[in-house]
TrEMBL record:
InterPro entries: Beta-glucanase-like (IPR000757), ConA-like_dom_sf (IPR013320), Glycosyl_Hydrlase_16 (IPR050546). It comes from the Eukaryota. The lineage of its organism: Eukaryota, Fungi, Dikarya, Ascomycota, Pezizomycotina. The chain crosses the membrane at residues 72-93. The keyword Cell inner membrane does not apply. Belongs to the glycosyl hydrolase 16 family. It comes from Mollisia scopiformis. SUPFAM superfamilies: Concanavalin A-like lectins/glucanases (SSF49899). This is Glycoside hydrolase family 16 protein. Keywords: Hydrolase, Membrane, Transmembrane, Transmembrane helix. One of its GO terms (molecular function) is hydrolase activity, hydrolyzing O-glycosyl compounds.
Amino acid sequence: MSYRSSLVIAEIPPQPISSTPGEASSIDVVSAPRQRRFKSARLIGEYEKPWIEAWKTGKKGKKLSGRTWDSIIFWVAIFVGFGLGAIMCYISYSAVSNFEYCLVFEDNFEKIDPDIWGYEIQRGGFGTGSFEWTTNDPRNAFVDAEGLHIVPTRTIDDTTITQAQILNGYTLNLTTMGVCTSPDPYNSCSIYSNSTSGDIINPIRSARLTTKGKKTITYGRVEVQAKMPRGDWLWPAIWMMPEDSVYGEWPASGEIDIAESRGNNGDTYAEVGGRDSLISALHWGPISAVDAFWRTDGKHNVRRTDYSDQYYTFGLEWSEKYLFTYINSRLLQVVFVSFEGGNMWNKGQFGQDIVNNSALHDPWSQTGRDNTPFDQAFYLILNVAVGGTNGFFPDQTGNKPWGDKSLSAPREFWNATDLWYPTWGNGTDRGLNVKSVKMWSQGACGSPAH
């Protein structure tokens, strides 16, 4: 597109010009020609419109023009399209499972209700090599007007254990204190700090609340309204474990991770995702060496914000035919697993695995159910772990100050306190904050399942 401009000089009457005092002369100013006004090329006045005449003729019952047939075909196609779309939507809606549910419990955390929640207290890392010691201390798990807070703290801040004792010459024995809940008292209930061996007292204390032995479901729904913590190497989790290990030790009896995250800043931990990333997964396998979680995991990232900025609803829907996790609504699914089309042994292709020169034992297929091991009662867990040596925080990523295979990983973590501690939020910002938890069991209340 180009633009044209023109200068029009108005006519000015001749004026006398004096060259010297007493003399007068005049100069005629020549008028510039006026620019021709723009004239539209559009049709003006009366002209023929044959398409209108054809339409009028058609309305009188005479032969319709081709243009009129175009209109008819267009509108018929529109109505047929809407009709087919409605039929497809109805078929899809009819295929969606809409189960009836019975509320097992709803907790808005006016208190930590002992009829719903218990504490798991130990120091052994729960199989992940995490560095915290879990407690029932109200400084690590408490309720206020905002709900439940699970907040990690430094051991030297909340106990009489000194910095020197963390590193050497102190015995922590949760069994003699009468609080350890682990069935493995040697590895999970006691530790002696020794500067020679590199063993240290767990430098962080946190909490782990569960509904084990109190509230469980086999199929149903769970919704947890929560806000994730902020701080390097914090590991919040909302997840489920089997009430009984019917098919064997982990992961043979399964694990359901509804929502996990990392407290690291998403910009500096972008390779695997920080607190801007939400992870869901199922863990399953005949032995831990072949855990097939990578076949059934998912992740959802948010932009220009993260999961510590506001509360989100983290949900699970679980039936005999499928299981999926979601954020805020069932439309935003993080992971979806179908249990149809073959059992979990075949889906995991475990028959092809050889471990320590031996074939694996199939613990599931004898049930005849495709969803085994996810066919038993599971309970809910809320916790904040710190660090770990199982690969959740990959080596050589985000200035990680310890190595997973190091025999002194907790000490390496603790020695880097000046790096990670300033990133931890103040007060409850460093904690998992939970407004409410709801759990439903599939089936009508009063049915045999209840």
